[in-house]
């Protein structure tokens, strides 16, 4: 009789423990997810290096590889040589303009002298016309050379823009991990050919994960953005662990319970999705189930 009472006591204790640790105390259920994104090639060519593998963790922006830039470099050197050749003629143009301007200054002084003499009737109308005609010729020569100079400067500017474009393509040939992130998947290897837009690898910041869970309409009044909640995860088959999380998003529209819910009775219920941000100390994985207690 005493043994029977002892067994009954143990069974009751186990049931109480199960109730305390079981699903009945949880207010919402879901799975952990992360915002992942693809890093794609920004230029076409052969991958000359790609120094990363799946699971690598980067704590800051890091150069991890590059696409062959040999042809871009040669094209850039060619454009630089063209620019140098064209620019060498600018000094000659400037010198010609300076000569014409000096001639113009002398002619204008002569014009002042001749105009004064003409007022005193010491020179003829022809001499006045001649000096005015010479001034007009020199002014046209200056404008012609200035137009030639503008054309040369335009060619140089065009080459500068082409060089800047190539520099941009060279910069885009670098393969970067742009921020702190973990490599989830890798799609390409060194020496493979790629086109601009070809996916290279997938990243996600796993320093914190979102537990996407679902609550019923009558629970909406109990939650708010910024609210701290307890997040429960499995430690082993019999024990749980708790973490602190913060509600960062609540859906404004209801939806049917996702099909991952086991029973049809539950799947036909209208629920609201929410996300709880949880700092990841290494225990959390994408897809891992979790529970929420408000």
TrEMBL record:
LcnD-like C-terminal domain mapped to chain residues: 208-256
Keyword Transmembrane: yes
Signal peptide (from-to): 1-18
Protein name, as recorded: HlyD family secretion protein
Coiled-coil residue spans: 90-162
A GO cellular component entry from the record: efflux pump complex
Highest taxon above the source species: Bacteria
Subcellular location, principal: membrane
GO function terms (MF aspect): efflux transmembrane transporter activity
PROSITE patterns, sorted: PROKAR_LIPOPROTEIN
InterPro entries per the UniProt record, alphabetical: LcnD_C
Alphabetical list of Gene3D superfamilies matching this protein: 2.40.30.170
Keywords, alphabetical: Coiled coil, Membrane, Signal, Transmembrane, Transmembrane helix
